[in-house]
Specification:
4 strands; alpha+beta; 4-stranded antiparallel sheet; Alpha-Beta Plaits; single chain; 156 residues
Length: 156
Amino acid sequence: MPRTARVTFENSVYHIITRGNQKQTVFLDMADYQIYLKMLAKRKKRFGFKLYSFCLMPNHVHLLMQVEKANVLSSIMRSLNLSYTLYFNFKYQKVGHLWQDRFKSRIIEKNEYLLECMKYIEENPLRASLVKSIDKYNWSSYKFRSEDNLLLDNLF
């Protein structure tokens, strides 16, 4: 039975979560995090989405992005997840799925919740006890974003 089509809207902001298959670790060393961010930057240029926040956790990824065209969200994530899976499987001599199911997406409708969602995403390493201070985690947008620059356009 085919999946239900994902409902997306033009000029909408989405909180995206993609998790390692069976909650497995998908970033095994520093190079893996760096490669994923480079792949994300490449997709950002190719598809023209706005990136508000991100956090790469050892076994999952959070992205907060705005897409202009309704149908582009799935294309972005398909391209990003497939490219990273090919890289990961080649590097670690693995085969098969890296990501669990398809990515989750929640639409962010209100400006107030946009800021709350950014905070939630960037505080993930604290909640997971990976760091004692949020500014010590290298794989989230917290270090790159300032209060007067909510978009991460300068990062990528």
